[in-house]
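I'm curious: can you give me some protein's one-letter sequence along with its backbone structure tokens because I've never seen that pairing?
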Amino acid sequence: GLDQVLPPPRRFHLTGFSFGAMCGGFVCVRQGDRVISFTMVGASAMGLRRAAAEPLGKREPHMTEAAVAAQQRRNLEILMITDPDKVDDQAVYIQTLNTAQARTQSRRFAATADLARALPNVKARLNAIWGDRDSSAYPYFPEREAFIRGLQPDAKFRLLSGIGHWAAYE
């Protein structure tokens, strides 16, 4: 599909958030020299340490719309957004839609090293961004930076102050 949208030999920059970062690593490997840069935001699947997290609530068929919204709000507080005051109705709406439409249980990939295995084969310049309170990586950012810089010493590595996993939203 990407070859139809951006026909070869056109080059491009690629950004992937969370599960999209893992998928993006494989796209970069497949696309080779066409990818100019690859920016990972809140990437996991690097086989690196993660802090234990409170389990997320699961949607059940009997739940009311209000119960689903309350559960999604709590899940956002646990996983995605550091400041509970920033978990607004729009974030809950987006999360509810996304989880209802998801065809893949992406969380099961987060603890793998799939992205870590792909990154050494990425030819593009690497960039990495995490919120410094990202529940998928906190407090193990030095390990992530060392891993990425071990692949590309001049890779850009940024931590966003006071921000959680869903950095683009928060």
